[in-house]
Amino acid sequence: MKNAALTTTILTALASTPAFAVTVYDEDGTLLKVGGRAEARFNISDENKSADTDSFKDKSRARVKITGKTRISEELYGFGKYETQFDDKSELTNRYYFAGLGTSFGEFSYGKQDSAQVLLTDITDIMATFGAEAADIVDGNKDKRENTLLYSGEFDALTIQANYTAADEDNTKDTESYGIAALYNIGSVDIGAGYVSQTSGVNDDDQANLVVQYSIDDITLGALYTLGSNADNDITGYEISAKYKPVKKLTLASVYNYQEVDPKAGATVDTIDEFAIEAVYKFNGNLRTYAGYRFQQIDNTDDELQAGIRYDF
Predict the structure, then answer these.
(1) What residues have CB less than 8 Å from 89, skipping those under 6 apart?
(2) Model confidence over 41-66: pLDDT tens digits?
(3) What is the rounded CA–CA span in Å between residue 272 and residue 249?
(4) How does pLDDT run across 90-134, given as a tens digit for each residue?
(5) 89-98: burial string, b at 16+ Cβ within 10 Å, e else
(6) Is residue 306 in some structural domain?
(7) Under a CB-based contact definition with an 8 Å cutoff, are residues 114 and 125 in contact?
């Protein structure tokens, strides 16, 4: 069980922390790391055009992350994470800020953090440029949720997460939600399911997710199916992903996203129908470059090209 708790710590407290984050303090059972990224990138699409702009749009950004862990006793430790982002408009966004306690039976944390469903949606959210468009039907399914209490536990091959997100005046759309997700590993296969229920104003909405992932050698395949309701509209969607590493430094990826809405009045409408491809080349553990292209299948939507270079520290 101690190994499970340690693994969960890595999943929660150090999630998304660069491998080369610098340890700035490590003494008496307390560890503090600082890392981040500088990412220069651009997007080209007719979607960017307006009376004052052309198809080119700069989307550069930089992030700084701070993670910490402190040992309280043999069975108890504390942890925390803060991550902020500067975008191309020089605006500051607090992406994550949470703290919690880890025990021999899992971790409990509170703050701005991912919902439990991200354990599942990450299966098909594999690209640096596009993808992960069809998964979110309700706000409680998304990442970076404010006012969120999260439990995360790993028990041998089974990982379980559950969250409650409180509503207040500052919370996105003033929504209250709760959800649970589980992911089970059987050798090269991962199978998962999750459910989230949400109250937003006069609407009671919900969403269910099913995922499967298969990995063998340098190939990883993933699929997600989701269905739910939002403002009395029935919504279904699915995402399919594939990743291949032909050589050590090069990763090729593709995704297909589809979502349709069956409104309480009117005909069914395709809201998402797109296919994207991407190539990522890692020079080393710190520096990578990438390019992706999204093919839109819905009328009056335009294809997109996005590329960038990223340095992790």
Answers:
(1) none
(2) 999 998 888 777 789 999 999 999 99
(3) 32
(4) 789 999 999 999 999 999 999 999 999 999 999 999 999 999 999
(5) eeeeeebbbb
(6) yes
(7) no
Would 37 be classed as within a structural domain? no
Three-state DSSP at 267 gives: coil
Domain of 268: which CATH number?
2.40.160.10
- The parent domain of residue 50 ranges over 43-63+106-312
**Residue 175 included in any domain:** yes
- Tell how far CA 168 is from the center of its chain: 23
- The per-residue pLDDT for 287 is 97
**For residues 148 and 115, is the Cβ–Cβ distance under 8 A?**
yes
Number of domains in the chain: 1
Residue-level pLDDT at 53: 79
Q: With 90 as the cut, is the pLDDT of residue 307 above it? A: yes
Report the DSSP pairing between strands 30-44 and 22-27.
antiparallel
User: Which secondary structure element, helix H or strand E, spans residue 119, and what is its range?
Assistant: helix 118-121
- CA quadruple 37, 38, 44, 47: dihedral sign: positive
**Can you list the pairs that 100-104 forms with residues at least 24 positions away whose Cβ atoms lie under 8 Å?**
100/12, 100/13, 100/150, 101/76, 101/77, 102/5, 102/8, 102/9, 102/13, 102/76, 102/77, 102/78, 103/5, 103/75, 103/76, 104/1, 104/2, 104/5, 104/75
